[in-house]
Each structure stands twice: as structure tokens, then as C-alpha cells.
Amino acid sequence: MITRAIKEQEIQNLTEKLEKSKAAFIVDFKGMKVEQVTDLRKKLHPVESEMKVVRNTLARRALQKYPDMEKAISSSLKGTNAIVFSFGDVSAAAKTLANFSKDVEVFQLKTGVMDGQQLDENKIKFLSTLPGKDQLRAQLLAVFNAPATKLARTLNEVPTAFARVLQAKADQGSN
Fold first, then answer.
1. Which member of 39, 53, 153, 174 has the lowest number of beta carbons within 10 Å of its beta carbon?
2. Partners of 28 in the beta sheet?
């Protein structure tokens, strides 16, 4: 039997996780084996995400402090649920969940919330197709680096072209 103090502690833990997270996803794990749940948790850890199995009533009470989130996801809190909290790159967490749902048929992405906006399964799958934070940083650095690289190549081309002309002249004179 769960005491009132344990329930209050659980609500407090959920509230803290909701506050820290950049996004939260509601998933249905009914029918999954323990090994599959453990595997999912292991896959979520490197992308700074965490899966927590919650009682629906406790989750609703924790969501009361966040009206936007409550409005977006409270209607999905039916049945066997877990909340996946994404503390880091949201697209990486969505990609992990989408790939896992392809591998494990009984795993279901119900809904999610990011910046107070509801995410249905299609939006979560679209979010999973976006490049990750590291890839976006690399692309941005490449954009910043391109003009300097082109300038260096252009400045290097003048003496290189001059050297080729001299070499061609020397080859022509030796014949």
C-alpha cells in the first residue's frame, strides 16, 4: 500500500522532472517484456532522457502546476503509461523513441509536449527526422567557415597559376 507521504514524494519528483525537461512524451509500454523496457531505458540514457513509469492520477496532480502541459497531454493519461522526459536534445529523444517503436510493435507513442505545444505521433516522428544538435552545430560552423575557405583558395590560386605559367614557359623553352 502506498502511503500519502510516498504519493506526495512521487508527485514532487515528477514536478521537478517536468520543470527540468525540454519535452515530455507519453508512451504505452503494455505488453513489453522487462528486457525491452530495460533496453529502451539504456538507449534513452545517452540522449539525456529518462523513462519513468507513473500512475495516471499522480501524473495529473504533478501536471497541475504546468497548465500548458496539462492541457496538451492529460487526456492521454489512460491505461498503462510511462513518461519519457527529454532533458537534452529533443530530436534525439524523439528519434530514439521512433526507432524503438519500429523495432517493438507493442510499444506505442501516444503524445508529447514541447514548449507547451501538444505533439501527436506524426509530429513526434517528424521531430525525429530533424538533425541533432551536434549535426546542426557542424552545419553552422561550415557555413561560417565557407567564406574564409573560399578567400584562402582564391588568394592561393594567384601564385599557383603564376607558377603553372612559369612551368609551362620553361617546358616550352626546353623543347
1. 174
2. 108
